[in-house]
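Work Package 3 (structural annotation) set out to generate three-dimensional models for the target panel prioritized at the project kickoff. During this period the team completed the workflow that converts sequence records into discrete structure tokens, so that structures can be stored uniformly alongside our sequence database. As a representative example, we reproduce one entry of 290 residues exactly as it appears in the project archive.
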Amino acid sequence: RSRGRAGGYHRAASMDRRFSVIVCTYEQPRELDLVLCALSRQSRRPDEVLIADDGSGPETARVIESWGSGLGCPLRHVRQVDKGYRKARIVNEAVRRSAGEHLIFLDGDSIPHREWVADHREAATAEHVLTGRRVKLGPRASAELTREQVLEGRLDRPVRALLASRLAGDTQRLGLGLRLPRPIARLLHPRPRKLMGVNYSLPRAAFFAVNGYDEQWTVYGREDRDLELRLERAGVPFRALLNRAVVLHLHHAERERSPEALTLVAEAERSNTVRCTAGLVGGDPFDADS
């Protein structure tokens, strides 16, 4: 699959670019607290963290409030009321409120390695989408993980920490937790990979060039595929970020994608759309109570 040269937005690189981390969450306060623990000990802090909250209850708000200034960077809670699955809308709003020239996306149940932000920053260009992956922690490893273990850096070497879990058939894709020197990682993973919302980054200008996520996508699953297709059509090049920017995904029961989601994906793959009509511009006017 061809990935073209970027077009339609400014390419000039800058050493002083600001990086905003967007964390998506819905009713997972324990998991979100573990993610914030990991973000608090990054070797290179982001310039800000925004929690894109698709209608969680008060426990999630308490977790975010409890962190205060504990991340070492501004932390903002961007929430909408729960009216069903509206991830696209709340992520777009978090992006609107962000200040970074570069956006890094993370799911609220996925714990980043201490060098996660640093790896995205180091590999960032003014053109590329950087597509990372995740280690899938098993049910037992996920349930037993504590915030103290995260804060102490137990997962900085996940292969060593989780080897027994992998051998027991609990944790999966542990090889992706091996953080390699950048030249070796690039050599092992030369081809572009698909975009996964759990772990990717891109220039703000590229996200705006395609009008962000499609807010008409109100069924669970694959809205990232639609975004990926439109970025490709805009000529934005993709680059793999495997065995760098390590993320460990906490186990949860998998939700089945609905027939509606599969229909939307098929339509997106047949389309030639670059800018969605209901996105950063043209979507629902945002009000926290709407």
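Residues 120 and 245 are 6 Å apart (CA to CA).
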